Amino acid sequence: METGVMGRADGSGTDVDTTVQEYLARIGLASVPQPTTDGLRALHRAHVARIPYDNLSIMLGRPDPVEVRSCLARVTGGGRLGYCLHQNAALGWLLAALGFSVSTRHGHVWARPETQLDPFLNHLVLVVSGLSTDDNPGGHWWADAGMGEGFAEPLPLVRGDHEVDGWSFGIGAGYGAQAAGRPTGPAAWTYRHLPGGVVRGVVVTSRDHGTAALDATHRQLSLGEDSSFRRMVVAQRIDGPRQVALRGLVRQEMTPGSKRQHDLTSYDDWRGALVDDLLVPVDDVTDDEWTGLWARTQASHRAWDEAGRP
């Protein structure tokens, strides 16, 4: 399948200019960035710092749609955006609406070596093209608001190690390209994640990642009995060099030189971490939902503790 290309977006019925302004206000940008490398970096940093990656709606049993119009409505309405399929659908729309050249790729995120070459689609990847620099003459950049923990600004699609805010990230040749001795290009590549992260890497290809494939993936990840997205509450955001996360009852903060984590033992501290620290919107969560989610989270944490925290 050819890679998807996102043109000048209309938001499937939304007013483009109004949606852009409301989106930029949500991420704290007072002016409209230009479609340049500086504009791309500013947009990316603002998005990952202000709109957290989260699976709260999935944990509440009412997953949000991945359709672009729905994602944009949640962004501009101050709601939760969600995980990678939601995050990058919205960011891709914004970039295209602002005049960036945006296309999409199939991503497979892996945490265990035995799953590295699995063809399962579990990540929507964005490529921004046409922005060449001395260090990136091809002009292709990997923008990604859906990693949860990851890079604060886009990575150049140039083979090698790339430093952002003191973190080192690696871009390698795609497996087919590597075998043929071809250099890395914008169609396929491998990725080495930051040290100490939950994710180990990503394999990016041009496999099928059309609407039907993304819908099937979303159903599996949000409703499947064995989906990791249904095991515990997860919220993450990237604030410059800080990687801030809540997984279950464990609050974690990583910088290039430190890693601190501790268990949250009270409901108020746990809810406060979600709302005040991770910036997760919760206005639609009922008291009964909070009570049930807190009880489930405590039970999962106890089971994890008793198993030796594997």
TrEMBL record:
UniProt cross-references to InterPro entries, sorted A to Z: Arylamine_N-AcTrfase, Papain-like_cys_pep_sf
SUPFAM superfamilies to which the protein is assigned, alphabetical: Cysteine proteinases
Species: Nocardioides pini
Protein family (similarity comment): Belongs to the arylamine N-acetyltransferase family.
One family name in Pfam for this protein: Acetyltransf_2
Name of the featured protein: Arylamine N-acetyltransferase
